[in-house]
Amino acid sequence: MAYFVFYLIKGTNGVVREAELKDSFPEYKEAKTYARNLRAELELKDVSDIKIMFADNEDIAAAKLTENRDAPILREWEK
Questions:
Q1: 14-20 LR contacts (CB < 8 Å, sep 24+)
Q2: Phi, psi torsion values for 69, nearest 5 degrees
Q3: pLDDT digits (tens, 9 = 90+) for 7-38
């Protein structure tokens, strides 16, 4: 298993449309350093679009990042 660093491409409605692989690493520390350097190069608004995913292969990692997840349920006291 490896750590994959992706750049997330979002659609007009804010949902992740595509995950573009930037690089993969066998160790988390290397992936974290690469992701930080990549975020430093981007404009401030795009910083959250760089993600690290741990998976068996690139296809599984991209699928996990692009899957549509339901919003968390807010309790009455959290509103």
A1: 15/68, 16/65, 16/66, 17/66, 18/66, 19/51, 19/61, 19/62, 19/65, 19/66
A2: -105, 145
A3: 888 777 766 678 889 999 999 999 999 999 99
pTM given for the model: 0.77
Pair 52, 22: CB distance under 8 Å: no
What are 21's strand-pairing partners?
6
Distance between CA atoms of residues 42 and 46, nearest Å = 6
Rounded to whole angstroms, the Cα distance separating 53 from 32 reads: 11
- Reference 9, options 32, 31, 42; nearest CA is 42
